[in-house]
Design goal:
108 residues, 0% strand, mainly alpha
């Protein structure tokens, strides 16, 4: 088995490099994954992205969807339940309504 060692230097004053350094440090402290495997996978994914470049971003997709759906209206095929309302008041409700109306008018 042959190995090749590659040293990497991070400038901790650069926010991107500090973020990368901190992430790799946390990988080394956890048992989730080795730094080496993470770096190998990241480099391979980057290489493969050169072969299959995406010319659009998530923001581009959102913009196209918004534009296409701007003039579309969505109508439900299910009928909404209707409720009938009895407009007639009982004698007791009418008396109560009259009393409340008079009480309100007395405030003026």
């Amino acid at each position: 088995m042959s190995n090749r060692r590659l040293n990497v230097r991070f400038n901790l004053d650069n926010p991107d490099e500090k973020k990368a350094n901190d992430y790799l440090d946390n990988l080394a402290k956890s048992d989730k994954q080795s730094r080496n495997k993470f770096i190998v996978r990241a480099v391979i994914e980057k290489i493969e992205s050169f072969d299959n470049p995406r010319d659009f971003t998530l923001q581009d997709i959102r913009a196209v969807l918004c534009e296409e759906l701007r003039d579309v209206s969505f109508v439900s095929s299910a009928q909404q339940p209707t409720q009938t309302v009895n407009k007639e008041l009982t004698e007791e409700q009418q008396q109560k309504n009259d009393a409340e109306t008079l009480a309100f008018l007395e405030c003026f």
